Amino acid sequence: MKLYLIRHGESYVNLPDWQKGYIDVGLTELGHQQAHALAKWLPSHIPTIDMLYTSTMKRAQETASYIAKTYDQPIHEDDRLREAGNNRSDHTPWASEDLPHEVADFWASERPFSLFILQEHSETWMHFRTRVGLFIEDMVENYRDKIVVAVCHGGVVTAAFDHVFNVGAWQQCDIRNHNTGITHFEYVNLPNREKWWLHYHNRVEHL
What we know:
This protein is an alpha/beta fold and 207 residues long. The chain has a single domain, classed as Rossmann fold. Helix content is 29%, strand content 16%. It contains 4 helices and 6 strands. Strands 3-2-4-1-5-6 form a 6-stranded mixed sheet. Strand 5 and strand 6 form a beta hairpin. The longest helix is centred in the middle third of the chain and has 18 residues. The two termini are 26 Å apart. The model has no long low-confidence stretch (mean pLDDT 94).
């Protein structure tokens, strides 16, 4: 299976002067331009895809819509691809109006078993990593010989690296992702070898 993880285009929540809190909002004008450039370039690198997934958050959905038009593919929405902190500990998503706003004074991965969104039933970093891992293993199980594109978030890409590289609970390296950056993993499962190949990360020559 070839798995392409693509971070969404620039969203209002990515702006340094954003003051409206932890809410679900869409792309900025630049974000739409990035998504358009991505969709225009992508077929020259990936001629066909079999499945197109997206996070159920607006910034990912809007980015995925450009790719869907290019490939004439339906979009499969999946709550497991939402950004860290946007689901409950049972992996169900918070409604936009119920998204927690109070954030702990530590980085989520610093205390992976503690609530970094300070609300009952919120997820920890390990809850988040688990749901991303469940998505990846589901793709392996169901699309072994397919090409899967998933539009998601920077945290999801980081969690995917943790899952594929079998990183322990405490990270020693952060994974940086540009808006619309592309990461390509391939599941090969060769005898007596690693199961995964990392072909590249954060590819952005379309911008």
